[in-house]
Design brief:
It is a single chain. By secondary structure, the protein is mostly helical. It has a single domain (about 1-225), classed as Glycerol uptake facilitator protein (Up-down Bundle), CATH 1.20.1080. It has helices at about 1-10, 20-40, 50-55, 65-95, 115-135, 150-165, 175-190, 195-200, 205-225. The longest helix is centred in the middle third of the chain and has 30 residues, at about 65-95. The radius of gyration is 18 Å and the shape is elongated. The two termini are about 35 Å apart. Belongs to the MIP/aquaporin (TC 1.A.8) family. This is Aquaporin.
């Protein structure tokens, strides 16, 4: 909600109510509070890329993956609805025909100069950094963040990814964060073009993060965890 909200404020304020740095910081703060709110309930599973990566490497039961992803997408859908309700008058003023503001809710290529393939690569790289960073932050044998500082560390990681790799694709790095609001924008009047723009671009912020997350987790395990003492077992492994 914080993420879509700040994008709405920047876009609908036409540059007078914030800029790109505001977006980076607010997305990070949204992640911070999301982790604090859900950490004790689900382990802060807010992102299908995180959920599936943990399952791939045996740190989450597969039976939990689908329910978690459904909850993640539903939560993002509801968040988009709330942002739309708050800013509805401005949406009607700035974009009454709903032709230019779909980017408030979901990610799209920065411009026609950025190929879809480049956006896909950006999502893979960004999410690989996210999962590699999350694995490092929680690695008990590699100077981990304390349980109290882990949410802040992950939030700063998200801010850094946005500041370094956000331009091409809008750094979804979370399929639910993109698909849920995209589905809402379809229902709210932006039409099927939210799924068909740029050669049906919608698949990029879904598949890219899922692939990138698995790569990032695998690289961290292969290059770092593999060198831990042989009798070490990750606390999340069954």
């Amino acid at each position: 909600m914080f993420g879509d909200g700040v994008v709405a404020q920047v876009v609908l304020g036409e540059g007078t109510k914030g800029e790109y740095l505001n977006i980076n910081l607010c997305w990070g703060l949204g992640v911070l509070f999301g982790i604090h709110a859900s950490g004790g309930v689900s382990g802060a599973h807010l992102n299908p890329a995180v959920t599936t990566t943990l399952a791939i490497f045996g740190r989450l039961e597969w039976r939990k993956v689908i329910p978690y992803i459904i909850a993640q997408v539903l939560g993002a859908f509801v968040a988009a609805f709330i942002v739309w309700a708050v800013y509805c008058p401005m949406f009607n003023t700035i974009d009454p025909e709903k032709e230019t503001t779909q980017g408030v809710f979901a990610t799209y290529p920065y411009s026609s100069d950025v190929p879809v393939g480049t956006c896909f690569l950006t999502e893979v790289v960004g999410t690989a950094l996210l999962l590699g960073g999350i694995f490092a932050i929680g690695d008990e044998l590699n100077k981990p963040a304390s349980p109290y500082s882990q949410p802040t560390a992950v939030a700063l990681l998200v801010v850094a990814i946005g500041m370094a790799f956000g331009m091409n694709s809008g750094y979804a790095i979370n399929p639910a964060r993109d698909f849920g609001p995209r589905l809402f924008s379809l229902c709210a009047g932006w039409g099927s073009r939210v799924f068909t723009l740029r050669d049906h671009y919608f698949w990029v912020p879904i598949i890219g993060p899922l692939l990138g997350g698995a790569i990032g987790g695998g690289v961290y395990i292969g290059l770092v965890e593999h060198h831990h003492p042989r009798d070490y077992k990750h606390p999340l492994e069954g």
